[in-house]
Design a protein that fits this description.
- This protein is mainly β.
- The protein has a domain of 174 residues.
- It has a 21-stranded parallel β-sheet that branches.
- The protein is elongated and about 80 Å long.
- This is GPI-anchored cell wall organization protein Ecm33.
- Keywords: Cell wall, Glycoprotein, Secreted, Signal.
- Pfam families: Ecm33.
- It comes from Thermothielavioides terrestris (strain ATCC 38088 / NRRL 8126) (Thielavia terrestris).
Length: 403
């Protein structure tokens, strides 16, 4: 009787001991489920696991709780599901790239990775994590996913969500982002809600119908909004960009921008080819622009009541009549143009320019104002180049103000 009860106890203890051991390898390659099962006795895999491009069917790597290296699968057209009921941490990269038949990733205990890359996983429609609360870099590109709800990291370095055609909404717990947020070309009428985001380094937002950042206070670098579908942009608590630009280009439905607390833009300001935007009267507290200001559109009114310092050119052109606005802005032109010098670069303000919306380019003329090519649908590219060019205008501004 004693042996009958003791033997199962020893078996259970042996199982616990086996699963707590560390298996040290540089790289383990899994070519079948049978090979994946061999890892069941490892509590920690000290190294990298690579799933072969010849592995197929269902791969389950349950057993290990931690991988100190990477977990990778690339260029595989046979795997259908990838799962682990035990893995909670990957110290390196979790990479799934060009795995065309994979339809499910189920890592129900996974809460921490250094880097998550799901790229060209065109059949992937199920993604389940613990949820994932710790990740430095996240890249979700070219998938069949409809939800990212199991990704809830609060602090990320890079976050890229693009070309996920069935993904129509993302709500994230993100609070800070140290490098760049890129959102582009996802599902129809894509919505992104970042209710807790307070600080971000850079962001590029494109092809979005709703973008919500009610708590955002600081953009350390640049904020770019290209070819979106929203009619209103609101950042009620944004006070400044430290060093970069703010740009709105080619947002056809945009009628209003609300950034009531914005006082300083470290770089330049570009608003161009937003054809439904008729008034620039929403920068009521903006005092300083560290680069150039370039405005192109169908404006009837342009106002900057608090603007006291523009270190680059100030260049406005509208298809409509903004003569009254130009007269008011002229007072801040450089001294050699009859103003008080608040605008340190060349001042230009023109009405009734039929081609105003075409000029979203980046070239810098000898006068310090900006010109360039028409909008050919590649607003993101032109805006990116403009962001760099704005800083160059500061040098021109310094020369102009000295004359």
């Amino acid at each position: 009787m004693f042996v009958k009860h003791l033997l199962p106890a020893f078996v259970a203890l042996g199982s616990v001991a086996a699963q707590s051991q560390t298996c040290t390898v540089s790289t383990t390659t899994i070519q079948s489920q049978a090979e994946a099962t061999k890892l069941a006795g490892c509590g920690t895999v000290d190294g990298t696991i690579v799933i072969s491009n010849t592995a197929g069917g269902n791969i389950d790597i349950s057993g290990p709780k931690k991988i100190t290296g990477d977990l990778k699968i690339e260029n595989n057209g046979a795997i259908v599901t990838l799962a682990s009921s035990s893995l909670s941490s990957i110290s390196g990269t979790f990479l799934v790239n060009n795995v065309t038949q994979l339809n499910s990733i189920d890592f129900e205990q996974l809460t921490s990775v250094q880097k998550l890359e799901l790229q060209s996983v065109t059949n992937l429609n199920t993604l389940k994590f613990g949820p994932l609360t710790e990740a430095k870099e996240i890249d979700i590109s070219d998938t069949f996913l409809t939800s990212l709800d199991s990704i809830q990291a609060s602090s990320v370095t890079n976050f890229n969500i693009n070309n996920n055609r069935r993904l129509t909404k993302v709500t994230s717990s993100l609070k800070t982002l140290d490098d760049v947020l890129i959102v582009s070309a996802n599902g129809l009428d894509f919505e992104i809600d970042l209710p807790k985001l307070v600080w971000i380094a850079n962001m590029t937002i494109a092809n979005v119908s709703t973008f919500s950042v009610p708590a955002l206070q600081v953009v350390n670098g640049s904020a770019r909004f290209d070819s979106n579908k929203f009619s209103t942009f609101s950042a009620p608590n944004l006070t400044k960009t430290e060093s970069g630009d703010i740009s709105f280009v080619g947002n056809a439905a945009l009628t209003n921008i609300s950034i009531p607390k914005l006082t300083s833009i470290g770089g330049g300001l570009l608003i161009a080819n937003n054809t439904a935007l008729h008034k620039i009267n929403f920068f009521s507290k903006l005092e300083r622009v560290g680069g150039a200001v370039k405005l192109r559109g169908n404006f009837t009114d342009v106002e900057f009541p608090a603007l006291d310092d523009v270190q680059g050119a100030f260049d406005v052109s509208s298809t409509g009549d903004i003569t009254s606005s130009c007269d008011k802005l002229q007072a801040s032109a450089p001294r050699n143009q009859g103003g008080d010098g608040k605008f340190q670069g060349t001042f230009s303000c023109t009405s009734n320019n039929e081609r105003a919306n075409e000029d979203t380019g980046t070239n810098t003329s000898s006068t310090g104002s900006t010109g360039g090519s028409g909008d050919n649908g590649e607003n993101s590219a032109s805006s990116a180049a403009f962001n760099a060019a704005l800083f160059g205008l500061v040098a021109v501004a310094a020369l102009a103000s000295a004359l």
